TrEMBL record, chain A:
It is found in: Cell membrane. GO terms for molecular function: dipeptide transmembrane transporter activity. This is ABC transporter permease. It comes from Arthrobacter terrae. It is a multi-pass membrane protein.
UniProtKB/TrEMBL annotation, chain B:
This is ABC transporter ATP-binding protein. It comes from Arthrobacter terrae. Belongs to the ABC transporter superfamily. Transmembrane segments: none annotated. GO terms for molecular function: ATP binding; ATP hydrolysis activity. PROSITE patterns: ABC_TRANSPORTER_1 (PS00211), ABC_TRANSPORTER_2 (PS50893). One of its GO terms (biological process) is transmembrane transport. Residues 1-12 have a biased composition (Basic and acidic residues). Residues 1-28 are annotated as: Disordered.
Length: 317, 574
């Protein structure tokens, strides 16, 4: 297991370096000039040159990259070209918002998805399945932003059950914080919930047909125990894999959701940075997103081996 | 070819079997099945017709039949665990007077495990892969009313030890994938006995296991059942096994009971035509019969051998010399497993040599090396003096033409998206034999040779039964007019009657085309039926090698004796 984790960590580090190179070269290939954005439309060529020199943009790209890497190793992402704020500060204030939002969305999606999936399997061909299938269809086909707007209109504005926008720090005020995040989390989690539901349903249908479920029934076990310990547990192996693959999409989904609900999160930071060609921020944002993908995948792999004892590396043979 | 059909045919309701008197007639009946009829789907015709039989306390009864005969459906009905849309459409299943067919599902749950235990068929698929084996047995105990974690654990370990699992205390916390097939079957037996049921249903409990392991487990099961006075309903396709293990045999075919009787009645004086055919085809019974009576006696099985020349042919077509194969164990640097260890034998042209051994004996690895699918670590396998792996590309092509395989699984070895014509034609196309028209003509000839109607050419594998598919696989192997055919467990997945037909076909083809067979099998009965020479393998080594009659009548090695002794049905041979 230790060797496995070591290998995975080494691969992750390599992925990060490669991602940093791609994004570094990538942003510089984009049309647009951060110096122009900073100095203003009326700036003279001389002024622009000064700004460029300040930002280090007059150097060659490899030179700039190694300077960036050197600072990065000290935990320094540089300063935003737009506001001058240290990028690390920007990330520290916006990332928690997105993490809370994503975590909340995952929890909602997993619970709703699995419960609906089990219902759909248990009531195959009857009305509860039609309802859950309907939810899944909506979750998969209606875009997030449209659902978000509908939710704000009806649940927030008309009914007044939830706030339409805004963010309260979850750590400082957990109840109010989560309350403010509920609507965005539900909207963000919808498509994931739909995927989980369909996957759970399909996988449960297969599992409930297996020999070991029949044997469990032949033991005289109660229906619930057969369903959960024998059916659901083995179905989750597939579900976990799918969820892992889908989580990446959650982060890009968060960009849109944060925009709709005016949440001061990572998504908003990303969008603003891209529009203003804020190179240091874009680089940092991409690296953080890459890192989160890596962490999520690692977590899924570890979770997978918990659910499925067969692939536990170097098991207790 | 009708016997090849995998699905039960609908026949008119036959007469229900009546229970014959046995030495246990004076005991009370605990299970009475009355005019049982099972249907699938709402409007379809039934797959079980009028099945009636009794099971007395402490009695052991076997249900024998081929796949599709309705034997598994019968036990599914008794347990009320019919797959899919299956339902009991008529009749009664009385357990001590209570009708299981009409019972509510929740009451049924209190019957299962506690009063009727099930030892299922396939040990590999019947344990929950994500749950420790101890917990799975404990589950059964808890469902049957045992309370208290410590008590349950103690009883679980006890049950595991009773079922013959060594070191139960430690193995309690292991997962199913850490157990061998035989050990998993023991776990399943422990589960079935956890509720101390009065009736135990064993559904082909050992058909997936090697013959010596099978014997150990069945002996053990019998001891446990006898000690408890449990009644046993034993479902099997193996007539010899049924005869060895039970007091009474119920023969089923196409959803109805054909004949009921004691093992002696069924095996020695079968009344119905179907039973007679089944007895004649049962390789295990026939093989031991041949072995105990006389080498040249014409018991049914020997019929196959009459055509092929018995004397040792002069020129060997295949010569295996000091063949050796080592596999590196994954994740453990430097540790090697020797799968094949210094194996040497020769196969004479026009004869059949069987390599027999249990799983893990290295017999398949030998076959793969001869076919050039695996590189030997040492030694060589020479086909007419040339080795596939040691030759240059053009020689190799030539050799591949001369050696063709037929594999075990007729479902997995045919591409499901190809038509039968294309499947048989494929080797011809690869070796660019003839033009399109002549190739099609050849496919038709090949279908004739394997006794398949020419009309199957346009069908796809999934429309064919297992036996028909194996005929297609043979036709494909024959397409290039090979001299040596390597059959890797080519008949082990088939029902006895179908198996018999395929073996006859192979013998017939050998006679007509002068083919040489290398027959890889775990089934000594099949060896007896088809082979001239036999190579017995164990743990990668050749244990014994010689003429079939010699090996069967005067085995030299203890392991060979053990294998021969484990063939079921020996008692009814003479």
């Amino acid at each position: 297991m230790i060797r496995y984790v070591a290998t995975r960590l080494w691969q992750s580090a390599l992925t990060l370096v490669l991602a940093s190179i791609v994004v570094f070269v990538g942003v510089r290939a984009l049309p647009g000039d951060p110096a122009l954005a900073m100095a203003g439309e009326e700036a003279t060529p001389a002024q622009l040159a000064i700004v460029r020199a300040q930002l280090g943009l007059d150097q060659s790209v490899p030179h700039q990259y190694f300077a960036f890497l050197g600072k990065l190793l000290h935990g320094d992402f540089g300063n935003s070209t737009r506001t001058g704020t240290p990028v690390t500060d920007l990330i520290a204030t916006t990332l928690p918002v997105t993490l809370w939002l994503s975590a909340y969305a995952i929890v909602v999606a997993v619970i709703v998805g699995i419960v609906f999936g089990v219902i759909a399997e248990r009531f195959r061909g009857r009305w509860p399945e039609w309802i859950t299938n309907g939810f899944a269809l909506i979750g998969l086909s209606v875009p997030n932003f449209w659902l978000g707007i509908l939710a704000i209109l009806y649940l927030a504005v008309t009914l007044g059950w939830f706030p339409a926008s805004g963010y309260v720090d979850v750590v400082a005020n957990p109840l109010k914080g989560l309350y403010y995040l509920t609507l965005p989390a539900v909207i963000l989690g919808t498509s994931l919930a739909a995927v989980i539901m369909r996957q759970t349903r399909a996988s449960m249908i297969e599992t409930m047909k297996t020999d070991y479920v029949r044997t469990a029934n032949a033991k005289g076990l109660g229906a619930g125990r057969v369903l959960f310990r024998y059916g659901l547990r083995n179905s989750l192996i597939v579900v976990v894999t799918i969820v892992g693959l889908q989580l990446g999409g959650l982060i890009s989904g968060a960009v849109v959701t944060e925009r709709i609900f005016a949440l001061p999160g990572f998504g908003k930071l990303t969008l603003d940075a891209v529009f203003t060609r804020d190179y240091p921020v874009i680089q940092a944002v991409v690296l953080v997103i890459t890192l989160s993908y890596i962490v999520i995948n690692l977590a899924v792999d570890i979770l997978y081996s918990v659910v499925n004892p067969k692939i536990r590396v170097g098991g207790s043979n | 070819m009708q016997q090849d059909a995998e699905t039960p045919r609908d026949v008119e309701a036959g007469s229900g079997g009546t229970t014959q008197g046995t030495e246990r007639t004076n005991r009370r009946s605990i299970l009475q099945v009355r005019n049982l009829e099972v249907s699938f789907g709402p409007a379809s015709s039934p797959v079980l017709h009028n099945v009636s039989f009794d099971l007395r306390a402490g009695e052991r009864v076997a249900i024998v039949g081929q796949s599709g005969s309705g034997k598994s459906t019968t036990i599914g009905a008794i347990l009320r665990l019919l797959p899919g849309s299956g339902r009991i459409s008529k009749g009664q299943i009385l357990l001590d007077g209570d009708d299981l067919a009409a019972m509510s599902e929740s009451r049924m749950r209190s019957i299962r495990g506690r009063r009727i235990g099930l030892v299922p068929q396939d040990p590999m698929s019947n344990l929950n892969p994500s749950m420790k084996v101890g917990a799975q047995i404990a589950d059964a105990l808890a469902a049957n009313g045992l309370r208290g974690g410590a008590d349950i654990k103690r009883r679980t370990v006890e049950l595991m030890s009773e079922a013959g699992i060594p070191d139960a205390q430690r193995r309690y916390g292991q997962y199913p994938h850490e157990f061998s097939g035989g050990m998993r079957q023991r776990v399943l037996i422990a589960i079935a006995l956890a509720g101390e049921p009065e009736l135990l249903i064993a559904d082909e409990p050992t058909s997936a296991l090697d013959v010596t392991v099978q014997r150990q487990i069945l002996n053990h099961l019998q001891t446990l059942v006898d000690a408890r006075g449990t009644s046993l309903l034993f479902v099997t396709h193996d007539l010899g096994l049924a005869a060895d293990r039970t007091d009474r045999i119920i023969v089923m075919s196409e959803g109805r009971i054909v004949e009921v009787g004691t093992p002696a009645q069924i095996l020695l004086a079968p009344q119905e035509e179907y039973t007679q055919r089944l007895v004649a085809a049962a390789p295990s019974v026939a093989a031991t019969a041949a072995a105990t009576v006389a080498p040249s006696s014409s018991v049914p099985a020997a019929v196959l051998n009459t055509g092929a020349p018995r004397q040792v042919a002069v020129e060997p077509i295949l010569c295996v010399r000091n063949l050796r194969k080592e596999f590196r164990l994954r994740g453990q640097r430097g540790s090697l497993v020797t799968a094949v260890d210094d194996v040497s034998f020769t196969v004479a042209r026009g004869t059949t040599t069987a390599i027999v051994g249990e799983s893990g004996s290295g017999k398949t690895t030998v076959a793969r090396m001869i076919l050039g699918l695996e590189n030997p670590t040492g030694g060589e396998a020479l086909i007419e003096g040339k080795s596939i792996t040691g030759s240059n590309a053009s020689d190799r092509r030539g050799l591949r033409r001369r050696v063709q395989p037929v594999f075990q699984d007729p479902y997995g070895s045919l591409d499901p998206t190809f038509s039968i014509e294309r499947l048989i034609d494929e080797p011809l196309r690869i070796f660019k034999v003839g033009g399109k028209q002549s190739r099609l003509q050849r496919v038709a000839e090949l279908l004739d040779q394997v006794a398949l109607p020419r009309t199957v050419a346009q069908r796809r594998p999934n429309e064919l039964s297992g036996g028909q598919r194996q005929r297609v696989a043979i036709a494909r192997a024959l397409a290039l007019e090979p001299e040596l055919i390597i059959c890797d467990e080519a008949v082990s997945a088939l029902d006895v009657l179908v198996q018999d037909q395929i073996l006859s076909l192979l013998a017939d083809l050998q006679q007509r085309l002068g083919l040489t067979y290398l027959f890889i099998t775990h089934d000594l009965a099949v060896v007896r039926q088809i082979a001239h020479n036999v190579v017995v393998m164990k743990s990668g080594k050749v244990i014994e090698n010689g003429d079939v009659d010699q090996v069967f009548l005067a085995p030299q090695d203890d392991y060979t004796k053990e294998l021969l002794g484990a063939i079921p049905g020996a008692a009814f041979a003479s």
